[in-house]
TrEMBL record, chain B:
Residues 25-35 have a biased composition (Acidic residues). It is found in: Nucleus. This is General transcription factor IIH subunit. GO terms for molecular function: zinc ion binding. A zinc finger (C4-type) spans 320-337. It comes from Brachypodium distachyon (Purple false brome).
Amino acid sequence: MWFDLDGLPVCFPYDAIYPEQHEYMGELKRALDARGHALLEMPTGTGKTAALISLITSYALANPSRPLRLFYCTRTVHEMEKTLAELRLLFSHLPPADACRLLALGLSSRKNLCVHPQVSASGAVDTGCRRLTASWVCEKAAYDRESATPLCDYFETFDAAARKGDLALYIQPGVYTLADLRSLGRERRICPYFLARHMVKHANVVVYSYQYLLDPRVASIVSSEMQKDCVVVFDEVHNIDNVCIEALSVSIRKQTIQGAKGNLRHISQQIDRFKATDASRLNAEYRRLVDGLAQRGNLPISDAWLANLALPDDILKEAVPGNIRKAEHFLTVLWRLVRNLDERVDTENVVNERPVSFATSIYSLAGIETTTLRFLYDRLQSLLLTLEITDTDEFMHIQKICDFATLIGTYKRGFSIIIEPYDDRMPDIRDPVIQLSCHDASLAIQPVFNRFQTVVITSGTLSPIDLYPRLLNFNPVISRSFTMSLTRDCICPMVLTRGSDQLPVSTKFDMRSDPGVVRNYGRLLLEMASAVPDGIVCFFVSYSYMDGIVSSWNDMGILQEIMQHKLVFIETPDVVETTLALDNYRKACDCGRGAVFFSVARGKVVEGIDFNRHYGRLVIMFGVPFQYTLSKILRARLEYLRETSQIQRQAAQCVGRVIRSKADYGMMIFADKRYSRHDKRSKLPGWIRSHLHDAHLNLSTDMALHTAREFLRRMAQPYDKAGSSGQTEENLQDKARDAMEM
Amino acid sequence: MYGVGGGGGGFNASSTASGRRRNQEEDEEDDEEETGDGRVLEAWERAYADDRSWEALQEDESGLLRPIDTKNLVHSQYRRRLLLRSAAAAVRIQKGLIRYLYIVIDLSRAASEMDYRPSRMAVVAKCAEAFIREFFDQNPLSHVGLVTIKDGISHRLTDIGGSPESQIKALMGKLECSGDSSLQNALELIHGYLNQIPSYGHKEVLILYSALNTCDPGDVMETVEKCKKSKIRCSVIGLAAEIFICKHLCEETGGSYTVALDESHFKELLLEHAPPPPAIAEYAAANLIKMGFPQRGAEDLISICSCHKKIKSGAEGYICPRCKVNVCELPTECRTCGLTLVSSPHLARSYHHLFPVAPFDEVTFKLGQKGGQNCYGCQQSLINSDSQSNLHVRCPKCNQHFCFDCDIYIHESLHNCPGCESQRSFSS
């Protein structure tokens, strides 16, 4: 349908539009008009993506003088595919004359795009690809045709086409998902990864993971082509600050140091070999470094793997210090650094230092200057290229250490170095670690805000919405939170404060190990397992609490009773194990056996996984998930921020994953007596609070069970799919006319 | 058929009879209220746990509690159903009149839950009984079999057959529950039985599912695919909540999936399955079916019936016209020669599904209106002292007015509009 939004004709691919989508588009248009940044919160399942892309595309079409390009950053490959499907639907509704001018494509890593039969089948796609496509491999093959150096045919086609400049012939305007790119690659025998990377320059819409923009190591390869007049959208980014921080945080363990030593030995062998056979190469590198880093830019496309960190421009223009220009000298500096770190990590007590003091101590103990530290990362890249090393994974350790050194050398504020002799959870096991943690989320994202005219940050949960501009240090022109207009009461939040024996339940420290509380929590889960179909997700406050409570449930026999109704799956810190558990959890929900998934509110593994539809009919939040305030890193960060208000965000995110569309429904139980207090409750997002009836604020287990049964029966009734909340084209026109008359 | 005077009178009589029949159900509930001296107990005097007196109340706009107006509620529910059905019937849809239906009753642990009174199992059995009677009433050419799920395995209670009494007797004798429930086992069992059904018959499964999970020995998805391939229409009525696998099953096989809110809603949902569903598209090609119309045997003929292997006199059974064997009841399939045996009234009674009476329009009574004072069916006055219910219905064809009771009776039982019929006899 087409409608008019403040003078802009907008094409919307559906027959009806929800009022909140209409408002959302209005705000977005204002931000585009003002060429400023926007922060928009709208509950999941209201068609954010559709509203966003249809408005921006329509805006670009209506203003041909201002060629607007859209970079849409998603969190996962799956979300990327969903967005592209939405784009395809939109394009099919556009007039053909417009649609044939637009190109939209998804960009992902080699792992997801490779079509080379052997390489894509092997585990290490990146390494395999480099082995076949690195510039010196190609040169060698061209120079010495008889030796039959293996090459990638797909890349060769790309290379030939790129040289002739007729790559545009390979790709027609339209929407290309990752699967489309792969099949195109197979059909035309051209490498989809490099083709996509090349076409980013010409595409109107690019959908990719937000690592490409935020992680400075990846960003500079892919995203450097973007001009100022791009619109960048970060979708589903409720934890964008964490992503930014992680992008600039490094932790070094004992294994890393051991690995780095091994790498250094390997490198020195390589250097000796090169000296014997091809000394000119090392000399060429030396001369290049004398000229300065600024000229690094003209390396062939396939060689540029990990570029520099977010370095200020002035550093790039400086020349590499003399004492690390020669390969052997550089190597000795690295040896000194690694040995120094090795000594530092062997500490008995926790150390918390600022980067400046840490750099000074490195200078006094190992004799490496701060300016030298700053260049280590780039110098290593240059050396690895010179030595023709393709196996990036093997040299990960030494890279990490150089990364660490460069960050220390570059930033004086916003970081701290924490050395811990053992993990807090397991004080008996010695596992020393040096952590360089970034506290300032704005460091990684600042270049993005500066470079692009409009950055839109949008998610289902951004509350408290005024926190984000401060965390990320930017000034949005629009910052708004929308509520969902639901066709029915499809979420049912409940606050459970008492067990069936009327005793209060809580995970407060003095109560959490009380057997009565543990039993009440167990009975709650048991009763719910017998009344709720398919999937139940339980969130606990921490791994240690979960381990404790699950083992006491096992002793009480509650776990066995639960197993009669549903299978039980548990999240562990191990990624592989948890992925397997999640897979089986889904299977159990699909085939009707029913399952319970135990997870941790701040668990890294489950973060970003949706438990929508029958995968999560009920979410139980056992306790209030506070940030783990005993963690050294967090404490340091809090000191930096003087900011504590993100505690409750976690609870909202945990429970918010139940609903992903309007047809969906789900229940949430907040099982802790502290939730009945207003100050805790008020931090939940508005769309949950608005469904939290007064009658559901202080329930006991049996009352909650009754409510749950009623709710599930009510939700299972058929309902009007079209929904009274949707508005059709005519409605909107009427509305516009009314507004005119007024 | 109907004479002007006599026919109308006859109709009156039957209408009150039907009214009595329907009232009987309500009376069953009312019986408990009446104590020895005939005084009706007030809501607060009843035992609250058994009676759930609070469920008979509803909140109005101003927050006051009012007793639910059951008559209007029942009628509005019925009308919704009728309109739904007639909307489907407006386009001439071919209907499967010869149905082979297996009713699956879940007797797993969950069936003993007490959220329905006295237990889910008892409610299911009671409603299933009513359903079987209604089913044979509406589909005289069809067959029903019963399957139960208990302890994770499924068990065939009765062979597929045409007699309501034997089915009900078998069901009532087997009411106990335990163990898990398994959808796959039940479907596999039924799939085995229904595969032998001749191609003109419509294979259906109706699952009354109390449990919220299913413990299957294998991949239930494969079984769903199998059912889909052999065109078994599976419908599920859940008693507790929506389950993904049931929804999937119904979507795949073209059945309907509903979840009951309470006992009366459950009954309503169950009875929705009584009228024949639209035929599956692949069967739309018409084919001829060989049928026999057996006659009642002569009084003096003594023979052994083929169904019970008992000696019967001819008057108790029917004689197959092809092989002359004695069968006890119709409709059935001859044991000896496999001929479908029906009686002509059975066929005639199935006929109305194809040409249903149009739904009546709801009209509000206007003062001073002529001719609409009394119900055309039962001659009761439509003007009530109770000002709320001066709503009534009118046949769109003959413009005669009817009361709610007659409306239900005409559409559910009579399948002819007395107004239209008498007009036709006038003109002819």
